[in-house]
Amino acid sequence: MKNISIVKADITSLDTDAIVNAANNHLSAGGGVCGAIFSAAGYAALKDACDKIGFCNTGSAVITPGFDLKARYVIHAVGPIWRGGDQDEEKLLYSTYYESLKVAKENGCHSIAFPLISAGIYGYPQKAAWETALTACCDFQKKECSDIRVVFSVLVDELLDMGNDIMKNLGISSCGGKSENNGSESEKVADRLKICGQEYDACYFHNTNEPYGFLSNWYLSDFTVDGTKFTSMEQYIMYSKCICFGDSITAKDVLATDDTAQQKALGRKVLDYIDNVWAGKRQLIALKGLYAKFSQNEEIKKLLLDTGDAYLVECAVNDKVWACGIDLRDDSRCNAEKWSGKNILGFALMEVREMLKK
Q: Where are the alpha helices (DSSP H) in the chain?
């Protein structure tokens, strides 16, 4: 299998078509990852959608919109509580993953992110949970002839290392998945881009834990613009969006959090927003922020300059503005004629790179 990976990341920040919530039978908001998903999606909207469904059996899955998340959908999957191993726990956990993937496929998803279901407060032994999870996903891909990209999201190195070891033991080849990093040389992926029949060097990027992650707007790196300190480009852009339309209250809320997903969600709620006005201003705003980000941080400035003259392309299937509109692992990204997005961030980064060279 080449479509399974494990990453150390907040699942709410991932830009897969669907993310999976380790839900309870009544689909009510809980703590931990479940609570984080409700918060990032918009508590009231997601709760209302779950209330309309009402109930989900253990070993099954249901789907709702993703609302304010990057993901289009949240798949709510109910795993078993560990009761010693003789209450069909393995069978139920296997079914939880398999049914989640069936729901994803039925709704046209090409990528899905899972937490390690039942391995938290439900008490399922972590090693056994990994073995069942990975086996279920492999079986689904084989039996259903599915090319859905599966990402497992964990928050601690212990689970990351355990998962990768079990993947090797099961003979599964990971398609990536590493701890958070700044896109070091060892992570870079040489690639090409075809434009009007000509080929050029290209650097493709998306999540902060993937190659060239330092180029992402969600990458955490402090910088200052006009006397205001920002922790990421996402915070700067969402703050600027608020200021552009005179929404100072939401602008303060954006500055009050370092959570990039929350910043994005706030940016979608700007009062008196006019799309055509923002469309005209956003790239100029981005250029100013990106110049500050890279000129004020020598390490990532060097990494940007090291990309040489390569085209810089953000890959996100759900982003038709800042990105090229194609998944990072979709070969179509390498042909500009097949892009469905504008790649505004990529071209802005290229302009800032030229500014820094001078």
A: 32-41, 43-53, 89-106, 126-143, 157-169, 233-244, 248-255, 260-267, 275-295, 298-305, 344-357
Question: For residue 173, is pLDDT > 70?
Answer: no
Provide the terminal-to-terminal Cα distance of the chain, rounded to the nearest Å.
46
Beta carbons within 8 Å of 272's beta carbon, 6+ residues apart: 245, 246, 247
Q: For helices 344-357 and 298-305, what crossing angle results, to 10°?
A: 100
Which residues 6+ apart lie within 8 Å of 44 measured at CB?
none
d(CA 241, CA 270): 8
Tell me phi and psi for residue 201, to 5 degrees. Answer: -65, 145
The two most distant CA atoms of the chain are separated, in Å, by 68
Phi, psi angle pair for 349, to nearest 5°: -65, -40
Q: What is the pTM of this model?
A: 0.55
Provide the H-helix boundaries in 5-71.
32-41, 43-53
DSSP type of residue 27: -
What gap in Å lies between CA 313 and CA 309, rounded to an integer? 12
Distant-in-sequence, close-in-space partners of 306: CB < 8 Å, separation ≥ 6: 185
> 73 φ, ψ to 5°?
-135, 155
Does residue 32 come out as left (phi exceeding 0), alpha (psi in the -120 to 50 range) or beta? left
Q: Provide the 10 A C-beta neighbour count for residue 287.
A: 16
Q: What is the pLDDT of residue 331?
A: 87
Give the separation between CA 325 and CA 307, rounded to whole angstroms: 22
Q: Is 115 exposed, middle or buried (0-12, 13-18, 19+ CB in 10 A)?
A: buried
Summarised one tens digit per residue, pLDDT across range 285-316 is 999 999 999 999 999 999 999 999 999 999 99
